[in-house]
Amino acid sequence: MLPLIARRVLATIPVMGVVALTVFALLHLTPGDPAIIIAGDYATTQDIARIRASLGLDRPLLAQAGIWLAKLLRGDLGASIYSGLPVTTLIGQRVGPTVALTALAMLISVAVAVPLGVLAAWRQGSWVDRIVMIVSVSGFSMPVFWLGFLLVWVFAIQAGVLPVQGYQPLEAGPWQFLRHLVLPAVTLSLVYMALIARMTRASVLGVLREDYIRTAFAKGLAPHRVLLGHALKAASLPVVTIIGVGFALLIGGAVVTESVFAIPGLGRLTVDAIVRRDYPVVQGVVLVVSGVYVLLNLVIDVVYVVLDPRIRY
Amino acid sequence: MTPITRRALLAGSAAAATTLAAGPYVHAQKTGGLLRVVPHADLKVLDPIWTTGYITRNHGYMIFDTLFAMDANLKVQPQMVEKWTASANKMKWTFVLRDGLKFHDGQPVTAEDCVASIKRWGARDALGRLLMGSIGKMAAVDKKTFAIDLEQPFGLVLEALGKPSSNVPFIMPARLAATDPNEQVKEMVGSGPYKFAAGEWQPGNKVVYLANPDYVPRKDKPSGAAGAKRPLVDRVEWRYIPDAATASAALEAGEVDFWENIPLDFAPKLEKNPNVVIFVSDTRGSQGWLRPNHLQPPFNNKKARQALLYMMDQKAYLDTVIGNAKYYKICPAVFMCGGTPFESAVGAPKQDLEKARQLLKESGYDGRPVVVLDPTDSPYAHAPALVTAELLKKIGATVDVAAMDWSSVLARRANKGPVGQGGWNIFHTWSTSLDVITPAVHAAVGGAGEKAWFGWPTNEAAEKLRADFVKEPDPAKQKRIAEQIQQITYDDVPYVSWGQFVVPNAFRKNVRGVLQFGATLFWNISV
């Protein structure tokens, strides 16, 4: 196991290098100039040139890339062109809400979708199966922003039991923390619930047709022991894959949810930075998120090995 | 309080005596508590001299103070200044600061701080540059007094020092004002009614201000940015909510108290809520601009620009962009309507599509597509772009609507090159009244060619008149000059106004004391 982890961590280095260079190149090829945005409406060409120089944006692109990469190697992601705050500080301010939101959304998704998927497979063709599938298709089809506003209207405006927007950290108390997160997490989780439920159903259905399951039933094992002890474990590999991929997608999907519920997370930080061409912030966030993606893939690979010892890399 | 008129200026310190004699303003509002505000934009830049962004200007008003300030009636009033004198020819000025002025780091405000702050502002602001160009010497006389000796006449000394909108000549400690004007100051230390809570600032989320207990307000009634600035609430939090529907729901649910610049589609719903007040802080509002590129064909030809003028139908634009007639006004005045000092209808034509078609033909327009920049993420620039495109088609032009985000528009409009090399022909924007109401601040009427504002019109007569305007101290003569500039504007067409509109604020009924002004101010407000 350890050699696998070591190999994969080492493989991360060139991946991150390619990501860093690609992000840098793409960002600087995008039209837009932060110096113009900062200088404001009534700035002269000379003002803009002076600000561009003070930000180092007047240097050749390769020189800018070299400076950024050199800083990166020292662990310095740079500072926001606008606020002047270090990118690490900005990410530190935003990572908590995004982690809390995605973790809770994934928890809800798995807790609801896996049992529903198993149930649907077990009762294939019954009304339970059909209802689960109808709900899944609806979950896929519902736009996140629409669902978010619907939940706000019902639970925050009409019932008045939950807040419309905002985020409270865990330090503000678990009740406040959960009250502010429940609506965005449910909103974000619905599409993944649908995805995981369908994948679980299909996977369990496949396993239930295997000979060893028939043997287990023939031995006289109780249905729930066959289902949970044998079928679910064997069916879990594709489900784990989809959970891993879903986690990565959640980080991207959080952008809309964070905007609808005014949660100050990484998604909004990224969008704001892109809109204003705040290069160091975009570069920093993309690097960190890429690192998380790579890490998630590593975790999934390790879980594969744990779940199925036959797997070798 | 007596406003500063030109006559009062001559009296100098006598005017100050009158001000003092007006008596203290007795305030009966309650104090303490938290004011939760949804600002119109996210505060990302803190230095109000480094950027002209309105959100940074409003932030500046929270923590910095000004020597002079404009009141709600557009009169300049003393603010940090106790008294001032002007020589008979108005070439020598002396300013004495009020007692008790203190920066947030505990240091007293000195004349040196004022001189350093004016110099830094004067290096960035357009009106400031004009003032600095006229100054021979500016220096501190003693701890509380500084003097300005003009080298050449400048009729707007107090108007410049009391400039209400970006860049506002805020006073900061000399050590911070020594920062290169092209770099941001590293600390937010002012002497204004609120202190900036740097540790709580989260760009994209929250800005926190704490009442400054050491602030010594003036004794006179608050009016606009002038008068007593009382920090009545203990804490003001700006909570940035990017989605308008969420901000609206948060206001209705009582999760926030004040929503600045509400999108007008939300006004009808909020008007029906008995707990919410819709309030127009800036009754003069903003002026919409259609700006052609004077360097490239077809609008490098005066007749093609005049075609834009005769094509203009402000009602069509305002109905499309604003919708509700309660919030807009058709206005022929270049320097805006509604009690502005230089309001005039002189030279304004009426829409005449046939004439516009004829003028475009006479301009030699060859049928090449006219590139209209269309920022789809900015409603007050996107909707007018679509109306312009339709009207251009009606007068015989081929149109290419270039859809992009606002940041891309800002970058592209700086390109002076031909359309084929990333240039442009027309873009739309808008400007608030404080940045339009005089020839000294109206960026679109200048004619300085490649040094002019984006679009780069060349008009020597307009430039000379603007220079005369800033030198002229007599209001009647200023008015005449403004009318001449308006006539030139309607002849040479450096830009076309697509109308005047207001954007209201909305707040909960418990919010009291909101001031009427062209910038949103948060002193004097209680909850």
Describe it for me?
The complex is a heterodimer of chains A (313) and B (527). Helix content of chain A is 78%, strand content 0%. In chain A, helix 11 packs antiparallel against helix 12. Chain A is globular. The N and C termini of chain A lie close together (10 Å). The mean pLDDT of chain A is 87. Chain B is built from 16 helices and 21 strands. In chain B, strands 10-11-12-1-13-21-14 form a seven-stranded mixed beta sheet. A four-stranded antiparallel beta sheet of chain B has the order 5-6-8-7. The radius of gyration of chain B is 23 Å and the shape is globular. At the A-B interface, helix 2, helix 3, helix 5, helix 7 and helix 11 of A face helix 8 and helix 14 of B.
Shape of chain B: globular
Distance between the termini of chain B: 27 Å
Q: Give the tally of β-strands of chain A.
A: 0
Q: How much of the residues of chain A is beta strand, in percent? A: under 5%
Uncertain runs of chain A: none
> Beta-strand percentage of chain B?
15-25%
Number of helices of chain A: 12
Helical amount of chain A: over 70%
Structural class given helices, strands, pairing of chain B? alpha+beta
Distance between the termini of chain A: 10 Å
Helix percent of chain B reads 25-40%
Class computed from helices, strands and strand pairing of chain A: mainly alpha
N to C succession of SSEs of chain A? HHHHHHHHHHHH
The helix count of chain B comes to 16
| Biggest pleated sheet of chain A | none
Mean pLDDT across residues of chain A: 87
Oligomer: heterodimer
Biggest interface goes to: A-B, 49 and 52 residues
Mean pLDDT of chain B: 92
Outline:
The complex is a heterodimer of chains A (313) and B (527). Chain A is mostly helical and 313 residues long. In chain A, 78% of the residues lie in helices and 0% in strands.
List keywords for this structure.
heterodimer; A: 313 residues; mainly alpha; globular; B: 527 residues; alpha+beta; disordered N terminus
